Amino acid sequence: MEPIGDLERELEELRETYKSGKTKEASWRRSQLKSLLSLLEEREEDIFQALHQDIGKNHVESYRDEVGILIKSVNYALDCLKQWMSGKNVKLPMVTFPTRAELVPEPLGIVLIISSWNFPFGLSLEPLIGAIAAGNVVVLKPSELAPASSSVLATTLHSYLDNKAVKVIQGGPSVGDQLLQQKWDKIFFTGSPRVARIVMTAAAKHLTPVTLELGGKCPAVVDALSSSWDREMAIKRILGGKFGACAGQACIGIDYILTEKKFATTLIEEMKVLIKKMFGENPRESHSVARIINKHHFLSLKSLLDDPMVKASVVYGGSLDEDHLFIEPTILLDPPLEAAIMNEEIFGPLLPIISLEKIEESVEFIKSRPRGLSVYAFTKNEKLMRRLISETSSGSLIFNDAIIQYAADTVPFGGVGESGFGRYHGKFSFDAFTHEKAVVRRHFLIEFWFRFPPWNDYKMQLFKSAYRYNYLSVVLITLGLKKSSQCSKTH
Q1: Listed GO molecular functions (predicted)?
Q2: pTM above 0.85, yes or no
């Protein structure tokens, strides 16, 4: 088992920092967010190099999906922090008059963030922004599968942030196990359902609340769009949302396509043309397709294609380079539905297309499968849109684009069912690490005397009127202007 130095000493320092109350101050939160902004701007090149070393990402893709999106998120948090930290007044029923109530946000305390390897900076720092904005102290465990990125996170966060309040602990599964044995006030996990079950089991010991950001198979419904412009835009967004986002190794990436049989050939031919425009005749030399994270995952993807029936369904691509951990953008038409490629999350640059007689059949197809993180639909058919909204369930539903929801601060990002639970981004990140405390203030001046024993039918009638919001009846009964109706005696 990998040792974690003096873990108890590190945790005790976090506890003392939290007890001091400084993380609850707006000035501390704001200063830490500004320091994080400085880190992203000043260490941009280090981040680019780490991402290229770990997974072969192009620096433009790295800026789009990680550095730039994080800068946007920090600035949004800075703009909204005062509003987020403010309590909000809530209405109370008249029966409590004269009483005031508000919801006061308070930090949860000591939180653990366990992030993933595919977007090692985004999936580490996006929840960290929320945790800091909410006033928590944090332990971040980045993924050991992206060692260069993990190292940059450890060194830069130590240098830029309050290292008595934010700590990075590196290591493999045994380090994760040791961390999970500790008592936390919140655990935020991004990864696979298999590891999520381990996290949940550990959290149950201390009744620790958790957020699980997982994945699943995200379908894309592609209607037979009549306009060539619409088709080109749709296909660009599909290809970008599949092959152009970490080579398909993204939890919200398109996993497979559902389309009509009569449109499938047209779709595939136009996809071939645009793949060459986006990634070149030789995608391996284009520097626009990331590499597979490691040999183990490469072989897992290869095994999906090794099934003879699946291999026979390949209509484009299919070449693999194990030495360079590269898989060409690959399209498959109607692989067997019982094959592993149609039942496991692919997490790579393999894109099955399933053809249906009618596009409306896509609704039942999606409903028959586990709920994913996202459903995508490229269509102008309003009836189909309404059915997808009302009849399918997923973390998000996006029409006529792919993965764009990840960049939004004002909509929640999270799953449902096997794709996880809890949500974050923007205010939702703040809420994920916050307890909304109910604060009620009451005066001594007026009392609703009938709420105290001894009990009688007269008080019962007053309660019945009050709980039905019939306050006029309460006044009339109290003044003797209305007789209380008979009711069962209360003993």
Answers
A1: aldehyde dehydrogenase (NAD+) activity
A2: yes
